[in-house]
Amino acid sequence: MGRSAGGTALIDLLAGPVLPAARGLLGCLLSAGDVTVRLTEVEAYAGTAGDPASHAHRGRTPRNAVMFGPPGYAYVYFTYGMHWCMNVVTGPEGEASAVLLRAGAVVSGIELARSRRRSTVDRDLARGPARLCSALGIDRTVYGTYLLGDGPVRLSPPASPVPPSTVESGPRVGVNGAHDRPWRFWIAGDPTVSPYRRHTPRRPTP
DNA sequence: AGTAGGATAATCT
DNA sequence: GATTATCCTACTG
């Protein structure tokens, strides 16, 4: 139970290094209430281990505290004054690495997801980290909950394994530095993968 | 098609 | 007081 074809449980994958964990999360199913999404795009963040783009890079704060705990928990943060985004905590306790869930395809509960996202096509329902959370109804109440048990949000292994040859990687989206690290992973050719956009610097307000 | 700018509030220095 | 792991709308070609 809970073991994929390779014989590795999901929790063991999440407990290991962040890059294999990120790849392994592709194709996984994320359920919240009656809506289920198949993950198609993720990004790895290495915490304090020399990753300036991570929220945990400058050390532990009340907001990022859950990232320093054991793997398999949800790190949910609020950004730009209106959006929620969700990470899965990885690595051993004490190491603040995590994987940002960037996009997915709605495979169940699509009518409920549609009702939460107005005037958009189905492909865009969970295309982008904030849209994904919105489609699933994820907010601050999910912060710190365990994803591999009977919580409000549940993560389960892929229904069918994702062939490694269909996984591509590239630079992360929306971050200022560290463009040399191809730590964004996605399923090649999937229409729900968000287009690459470089971070747009904001001009100083007049 | 692609890009530019505004919305809007918690978090950190 | 500055910054932000974004999304949406409106504009240009």
Can you tell me about this structure?
The mean pLDDT is 91. Strands 1, 2, 3, 4, 5, 6, 7 and 8 form an eight-stranded antiparallel sheet that branches. A hairpin with a 2-residue loop joins β1 (29-32) and β2 (35-45). This protein has a single domain, classed as Methylpurine-DNA glycosylase (MPG) (3-methyladenine DNA Glycosylase, Chain A, Roll), CATH 3.10.300.10. It has four helices and eight strands; from the N terminus they run ααβββββααβββ. With 206 residues, the protein is α+β, with helices and mostly antiparallel strands. It has helices at residues 10-15, 18-25, 110-116, 129-136; strands at 29-32, 35-45, 74-79, 83-90, 97-108, 153-156, 167-170, 184-187. Helix content is 14%, strand content 26%. It binds a DNA duplex (13 and 13 nucleotides) through β3, β4 and α4. Its EC number is 3.2.2.-. Belongs to the DNA glycosylase MPG family. It is an enzyme of class 3 (hydrolase). This is Putative 3-methyladenine DNA glycosylase. Keywords: DNA damage, DNA repair, Hydrolase.
CATH architecture: Roll
**Number of DSSP strand runs:** 8
How would you describe the shape?
globular
Q: Could you tell me the mean pLDDT? A: 91
Strand content: 25-35%
